[in-house]
Known about the structure:
The chain has helices at 2-12, 29-35, 42-59, 64-82, 89-111, 120-131, 136-159, 165-193, 207-211, 214-232, 237-259, 265-275. By secondary structure, the protein is mostly helical. Helix 6 packs antiparallel against helix 7 and helix 7 packs antiparallel against helix 11 (237-259).
Amino acid sequence: MAVRGALTGVRRGRPPTDGSPDYGRSPDPAVFELVADPFDSVDDAHGRLCELERLFYERGDRRGPFLVIYSRVTAEVGRAIEAGTFADPAWVEAYLVTFADLYRQALLSFETGSLDTLADPWQVAFESATRGECLIVQDAVLGINAHVNYDLALALSLVGVDADRERKYADHCAVNAILRRLVDEVQDRLAERYAPGVARIDESLGRLDEALSFVALAEGRDTAWRAAVALADSRFGVRRTAALWFLRVSSTGVAYLLLSPTVSDRLRDRLRDVERGVGAAAAE
């Protein structure tokens, strides 16, 4: 999917601003208060992510579905750090906080209308959520795509992967075991909180359902690691530039693909009803 996404990203280019929210607008005070300052710990990151999700849920803001998943993952990785799961817990903690802070920065850029500092895949995800025209599952997966397929490599690069790389890679892979355990749970949380009928949406969604699976997450995380290694190799500026370009165009291309699932308009309308837990029989 990464290669197909890259081709789509190259073809489509930077997301247009026509019909987008009014950039340069004043940020929502409640959201701004939660994202104005960097996260300084796992507890701080998790607490504010949960507060954002609660705020979005209460307002019917479609940026919430991603957060109901991401806040849970952050909490569970934090517990694993405390339990001594990782060989280098200090590095994993820095990695977890830095990763969350990249989401905070993206949300801050969107709220303040700073398009020049907003990564393309996040622009697609946030604008889709603002329009509210997609399936809730799509909005959740658009957030996962931007965070895993774009932000993760940058987070790894920022905390560093060079010193004792094998041990760091083992800890990076150990997170996969946590994600494997959480896949079914976070799908249930998404259904309980936002889309009661989401459990009934399976083969009809094709790559959307696949994107919530462990296999897709593991693939994206492995690609992020390889990109982080390329970014860390400062001896070759061309390699670093190419890695940054690939991250941007592939994650943006995947976002476009996720916005265009291979289902008919009629079926998409039925799936919206299924998500809301009504008219489920019509989609069977």
